[in-house]
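[job 0412] stage=fold_complex status=start
inputs:
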Amino acid sequence: MVGSFNPQIFQPFWFAHHDIISDEDAEIAKIAVLLPEISRFNLEGDFSVQVERERFAIDRAVAPLIRIADVVCRLFGELLPHTPIGQVGINRMIHFDLGSQEARDQIGIKLAPREPWGEFGRLASGGEGAKHGGLISLVLTQRDVSDRTNGWIQAKVEPSHVIARGRTGIYMEINDHYDLGKRPDGADEIVEIVRTRFDTSLAHSDSIIDQIMSLKS
Amino acid sequence: MNQNPLQCPASDEIEITVFGPGFGESIVIHAGNNEWVVVDSCIDSRVGRPAALAYLAEINVDPSTAVKLVVATHWHDDHIGGMSELVSECTSARFACSVALTRSEFLEVARVYTSRPLIVASAGPTEISQTLATLRARRQRPTRAIADRPLIRMSRAVTGGLDWEVTALSPSDGEVQRFLASIASLLPPGIPATTKSRLPNPEQNDLSVATWIKIGEIQILLGADLEEHGVADRGWTAVLASSTPPSGQASLFKIAHHGSANGHHDGIWSNMLIKSPMAVLTPWTLGGHDLPLPDDVQRIRNLTPNAYSTSRLKAPALQALPQAVTKTLREGNIKIRQSEPPTGYIRLRTRASSQGPSVWNLTASDDAIRLSSS
Amino acid sequence: MNRPQRAIEYSIDEATPNDTSIDVSFGDLKAFMNSAVGRVAQLEVNRFDPAKNIQAPASANGAASIMSAPSEDNDIGEELEAVARNKQFFVPISMNAKSPKSRPTTFSPEKEWEGYIVTVDRDHMIANLIDLTARESRPSSTVEIPFKELETVVDIKRLRPGMIFRWAVGYLRMPGGTKKRYSNIVFRDLPQWTKRELAEAKKQAAEMAKYFAGAGDESEPPSVSGLRRD
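[job 0412] stage=fold_complex status=done
writing structure:
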């Protein structure tokens, strides 16, 4: 059946119709928006989905995380295999608490030493309370990744705004991105990447996160 | 148990080493003259690679030239861990397996279950599928094992030394046909089919390839996992009823099916073995059903005082788990146990001789035990 | 069918910002699906243009800005509607920073296994476990789980040998410092075998069987001093 991609179709009862979730869970799912251009719903404790005309995102907050890989492989490997998909990112986000602002500052200084910044670096590290300065965001990108023709692995470090009112936590985001670099015929290649790389990708992302967490003295 | 440093057997020494990690087993045989046979494969838990390859490397034997025959007596992953790697390295070896595994009925099921899994666990027929694919790529065909068929004969008329041969004692024709008829039931039913799963462990070892090895006048019986059903054309009854039984009696027996009652037949001990032979078994501790049971141990001890196990009969206690896990297990009445004891081995050597009874000299790993003292 | 997992002992009240997402972008949008409401929309093909892909982290920040709305879902909905109305806005393809809610929770499993069922008994199942935390690839332990621990996560009647699951155990950590023990089993909802896969398997099996059957005289094994190859 030929049709157009319609975000409105990606809603809980469609998922239940195809046995991805139960009918009961479809009934209690929270639909945030359902429009021709965008749909988003949340299945508490399982996953949340956001679909736009050119983008599909699925999030899961609790382990085992393999659930979202399974859902993606079912959706685009089985139900919608002809959907042309050219890129995929397997993203890992985490907040962790360092216990004190000082401990967090120390990591910030290790990641971005102040001396090269001269007087500005010294001043940027000062201040108290809401006026306390320091590292706000750091992004590192690896572009030459041996297991893919195109794509990257990118790691971002920022202060966490959700832990201890933003004082003692770090937020990290690892984006493991694959780009087919060509016009896709369907979803096969991307589904294969998800199938074969999901666990490895998460393990690698966790190792990057562990590396930063190990900087805590 | 004594443990001697591993040394390569002398050219005129016959050696058989049985490895057993708790699931699967591997038997490495030196037939003299640096010619080797490997029956089955398992992963040596100490080094994480096929036990046969790890052992041959330790004694500086090149598997690519020295191994002449590899036999797969099983087809399920839980029994032949590392078989595909073993076959890949034994490039001069002939590969033998049950004839049923080369038939389209089985190959179709294997192909279905190994296609595009998204799982860490093996699919079930992964090792045998990869092994057969390796053979296909090498333009090699497996030697098809069926009852009373010789798998290899080595004549040393030219090179000197003892002639040796390996003969399959099973499966019977009836076992093969029965297996092929039942295997189709493992195909996913209908379209749309069920979601993918792992191929379940086979309930019976119908295709198990028991073998008879003759090196000069030394005879060895490897029982694989052949079970007895009390039916004429199956199991050990079929072997014992063969019209071309092996001549002579074996002085060494690798006990069938981990010493279980299902693998036992009185006729093996009365007809096929010398009195009080050397007997070795590998325990099984995977999947919640341990073998051998205490009754099995007693039965074996009554049949020979020279019975050994490659490793302890019970898997060791589980290594320390995080507190969250132990509390969860306790509150849910969930029982968890380690299923892989350290891979142990039993090694037996004797001088190649065309006269007199064989005197086997035994060495063993620290984890191996003698059944009479267990 | 699989029910989505529920914590065996505890429920999660708040979404956690510690999560994992997969973003997928579409090229030409030819979607083939059965509409749950019976509608088939018209094909609208947007040509795939790599130049339109905004490379992270700008895209990530863009995504984060969408999601950084206040914690109530309806506020997020309004913001998303505004996005939808802005036809020029291209949501990035690879980064999806989820918006934290007011009381986020984190869950880091201390142990995670992949398991496969070996037997299904009257009131429990037995499974072999592969320790993913230890990066194992082979089973190293066996577990016996009573059915009452599984009733909220799977239809017990559908349990059968070979089924695969993941099991994570650890602590839910609240920002206030408290933690709750948490155990979660998810039975893998793997794709179904397709007609094409089954047909392909049959074809390949027939070809291989034909090749293996092609040996010469099978009555004599390889012999002579040294091996004679086919």
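[job 0412] summary: Chain B has one domain: 13-373.
[job 0412] exit 0
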